[in-house]
Amino acid sequence: MLFILFTLCFILQQVNGAELTIEELQANCPDDKELCMNKARQGLCFGSTLQAKILRKNCACSCDYAHFQRIQNCCHTIGDHDMKFCLPICRYNTTTEELTATLGLKCVSQLTTWTYCAADGSDNSDCCRTKGIPNECLSFCQGNVPACDTKTLFGYETCLKHIGSILQCQQEGLSMMPKFDPDYTADCEWDG
Fold first, then answer.
1. Where does the signal sequence lie (predicted)?
2. Which of 6, 51, 120, 131 is spaced 20 to 30 Å from 176 by Cα?
């Protein structure tokens, strides 16, 4: 039974992205303790448990890197491969200024993918409501934002003001294992 569970976890990691390595963490977080790196590799930085919150505070670099790798893997897997130049905005710390700047406007067709990946296949509406996110912005919390052009993006101006709180809910809603569907496709009809 244990072998089957291990095999299933291995298959899920292969489908949802390569395992985070100590070498990667050491290269990106040279000042973090090995304990932090091991906890990040185990997925213990994800979620809203007290342990995860303490780890994100005490092991900020390793946890931030684990979150970054999770969302990047999703965006890389399901995003439009002709739009790989948009990967820099696929993060949990993307700002409103970045979304409305040149790269953000060039990548507006990928906003649906980015919000889906930030949610990682979860509906975080309860958290967003707790943080006072307006009802018209809950689609961001659900990872279901049909925004494929700049006109639609600017229609979400109210929501963009809350993007920090929304992304915090998305991070807190992550489970230890990725839940995104690698076959997901955004419903976007680009109208230029």
1. 1-17
2. 131
